[in-house]
Write a structure and sequence with these properties.
3 strands; 12 helices; BTB/POZ domain-containing protein; 192 residues; mainly alpha; three-stranded mixed sheet; 2 domains; single chain; Potassium Channel Kv1.1, Chain A
């Protein structure tokens, strides 16, 4: 990349950061589950999210309610504005938000974000057939198990998903342990 291209990218990042921080020219308000309101720009969020593209065909007089906690919603919105991607992933991994962010990105039609999380966490491999300290933070694994247990009925009803879960005996054991004994037992068995 030439110096002028690099300079142009830096200017774009600075501009997007200023746009994100300013309510000027925003044409959409988004409200989180816990009441935080974000002023955003449809040209940005609708272009990068199929959900927002469908939800915002015209002007909205009231904030669009998104059933996510503010910290997850803000991470997702910052991704849509292409801000601090490396810092964003470090934050969400350190604060066990990766599972929540991944689920939100899937729910709100942001495949670039789900792909990035999968790539960062190498989710193509078996979570439990490798050393847990290798790549995945324990808090993320715990959250992944929790999210799986919340959807276990859907997983069992879907033959393909159920088959995938059965292929990973260590992960399956952790999910069953979580269901049978509660999350504290999983933490004791796997992380201490």
């Amino acid at each position: 990349m030439s110096d002028s291209e690099t300079e142009g990218l830096l200017e774009s990042e600075i501009l997007l950061e200023r746009v994100w921080k300013s309510e000027k020219w925003s044409d959409l308000k988004i409200k989180s589950r816990d009441g935080n309101v974000y002023s955003v720009h449809k040209v940005i969020v609708c272009e990068r999210s199929t959900f927002f593209a469908r939800a915002c065909p015209g002007l909205l007089d009231v904030p669009l309610y998104i059933d996510e906690q503010a910290d997850v919603l803000e991470l997702m919105l910052r991704w849509l504005y292409a801000l601090d991607e490396s810092k964003l992933f470090k934050y969400c991994l350190d604060n066990s938000k990766a599972a929540d962010l991944y689920e939100a990105a899937a729910d709100y039609g942001i495949p670039t974000l789900t792909e990035q999380i999968e790539e960062q966490l190498d989710l193509g491999g078996d979570v439990y057939d490798r050393d847990l300290d290798e790549k995945l933070p324990p808090n993320f694994v715990k959250e992944l198990i929790r999210h799986t247990t919340l959807s276990i009925g859907e997983i069992m009803a879907d033959g393909e998903l159920w088959s995938i879960l059965q292929d990973y005996s260590g992960y399956q054991k952790a999910v069953i342990t979580y269901l049978a004994k509660g999350s504290d037992k999983v933490e004791q068995d796997l992380f201490l």
